[in-house]
Amino acid sequence: MQQPNNEYIRRLIERVNQSPFPQHLRMRLVSIAPDRAMVELTVAECHLQPFGMVHGGVLATLIDTATFWAAFLRLPADAGLVNIDLRLNYLS
What we know:
Elements: H1 6-18, H2 20-25, E1 27-33, E2 36-41, H3 56-72
Antiparallel strand pairs: 1-2
């Protein structure tokens, strides 16, 4: 696979980070490369469940987002990608 253009990557990250959902959740795409992506979240009170821990749905969203962007650069331009199964097992 050919390495993506750095300017394309920069603009893609900027576009993602300016879109409504990531801004609402206070998460941002930090980096993207074939088969890897880094997403970070600024944890706020709105992310916490009643016992003060980050809600599992927030963690699932981060996983869903990171896996999408990790696969994105391998997709043909006319293809789409959705998760059909996301299962998390939380350990203590």
